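Ticket opened by: R.M.
Priority: normal
Category: complex prediction / small molecule

The reporter submitted a protein together with zinc ion and asked that the result be attached to this ticket for the collaborator who will pick it up next week. Submitted input follows.
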Amino acid sequence: MADHKVICWDCGAEVDDPYVNTCPKCNGLLTVKMDLEPVKEMRPQDLRKEKIGVWRYAPFMPVDPSHKVSIQEGGTPLYRTDGLAKEVGVSEVHVKFEGLNPTGSFKDRGMTIGVSHAKELGAKVVGCASTGNTSASLAAYAAKANIKCAVFLPSGKVAAGKLAQALFYGAKVLSVDGNFDDALNLALKMADEKKIYLLNSINPYRPEGQKSVLFEIMDQLNYDVPDRIILPVGNAANIWAVYKAIQELKEVGWIDKVPMLTGIQAEGSAPVAKAFSAGKKDFIPENKPETIATAIRIGNPISGRKALHAIYDTGGFSTTVTDEEIITAQRLLGRMEGVCVEPASAASVAGLRKLLSEGVIDRSERVVCICTGNGLKDPDIIMENSPSPVPCKNSVEDVERILGS
Ligand SMILES: *Cc1c(COP(=O)(O)O)cnc(C)c1O
Ligand SMILES: [Zn+2]
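Result attached by the on-call engineer:
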């Protein structure tokens, strides 16, 4: 573990109380400041003694590995997808398939660090609000750590697989009257009264674990930095985590070029993309976010300001895609690359397509799309957008008739 402190991202004040989620002085967002001096003595190869995954990058993490709560998160494949690249018309695309984490989304990267830290603190109850994946992940890590877990879900709007997971791992699942933003406000109230240790991404330890997706991408590309990294943006912590990882690799001298961070939102739920189009540093929350991509159906992104900073500072971009474009991209990944992602994850590929056609992304670029979650999380969407199974008699002739048609 590297030495670190929690500071306010807005005013720089140091924060000691591990149970506060915003700056006691200015109500600003918190972040972790790592002491990376020891890492400056190391080379990337030195880390390769550990197998690839979040804990390979322990020198960049604010939790001591002796408190590790792990179910082998990270180490996901980075596919070179030449078929997809040709289809959309760009020189090189890689897909980082985060759906192959233990609970099927990148949230596991943040949770292994967040729950390890909760255990370090001796927290009795952990909790989070979630559109689904955060709760599935927290429930699994709380089970592994043997800590009580409460998850706050918006009623009726959670994909079937995600809800099943939270229930399965034994969390107390609360179905809150309202949308994600309402569920988060309730969880924040519980945390303010110190009744739960909150593990939403407002908790600065979560993004620390999520930095590992960027460390892995660089490792897998042998530190040949890509021109651009595209990812979906919901509550906006992941793009911030990727940005923070880039800054830290620069600080220790392992990279000198910075990929353009490109955040994609769904058209009906796009406060960050709209702020970017207007050239603003802050966003206007949306009251009624709507999209089939439930993991990014968030109107008031907690880390929205950090995301905008990440995008501007890397010369990146932000735009929206329609639900239809998302479904088309999801299908393309399945039919061309054998990769099954949930709708929010397909937003990155939908965004790549759109920005190529608009000339924002140059066709000579080397691009990485982060595909955040597994398609099996949301089977209803797949069934709605796929042909029905074909009724078939128990006979070879009938099979031939069907295959021939
Ligand atoms: C959480 C999540 C997102 C959004 O990530 P943020 O950090 O909230 O921007 C995107 N896709 C999937 C599958 C997710 O679970
Ligand atoms: Zn402050």
